[in-house]
Structure to design on (168 residues):
């Protein structure tokens, strides 16, 4: 892939060398600078938790990267909005706002939590399913494959922090 497709010139606004539009079917249509089209491209974040707006790959249905976007914020507003909508459909990482209860302090345990998407319960299979992301952020894997995030442990209420600390 050409380096000019990968990097934006910092001296001038970034203008993508491709077009992206949503078809009536809901799938994305990617058209490159040569007019080659790829139906059904999927945006994939390189670092979905640590840097969600940096390093986004557009991948064809064959699994090949057709474009690389360094910074989502560098894109024109309409294109940025389209990609954000598509990424929101693809990425489902509820943020835990409160830990209401934990069935036991041994694992596996059932956690009942309040998230930004509503109340839910999940099974924590083992303490290794809680990963630290930086100083105050966590990623918690439920047994059904859903990842839950805690962006800042300090922002949780005292009871939630106390329950969480028993597993860290």
């Amino acid at each position: 892939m050409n380096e000019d497709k990968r990097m934006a010139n910092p001296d001038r606004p970034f203008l993508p060398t491709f077009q992206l539009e949503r078809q009536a079917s809901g799938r994305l249509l990617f058209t490159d600078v040569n007019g080659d089209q790829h139906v059904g491209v999927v945006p994939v974040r390189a670092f979905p938790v640590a840097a969600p707006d940096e390093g986004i790959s557009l991948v064809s249905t064959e699994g090949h990267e057709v474009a690389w976007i360094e910074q989502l914020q560098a894109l024109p507003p309409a294109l940025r909005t389209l990609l954000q909508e598509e990424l929101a459909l693809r990425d489902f990482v509820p943020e835990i706002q409160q830990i209401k209860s934990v069935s036991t302090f041994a694992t596996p345990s059932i956690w009942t939590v309040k998230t930004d998407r509503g109340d839910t319960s999940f099974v924590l299979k083992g303490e290794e399913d809680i990963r630290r992301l930086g100083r105050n952020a966590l990623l918690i894997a439920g047994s059904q494959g859903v990842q839950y995030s805690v962006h800042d442990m300090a922002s949780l209420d005292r009871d939630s922090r106390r329950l969480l600390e028993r597993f860290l």
User: Anything to note?
Assistant: Residues 96-165 form one domain. The two ends are 43 Å apart (CA to CA). Confidence is low (pLDDT under 50) at residues 1-13.
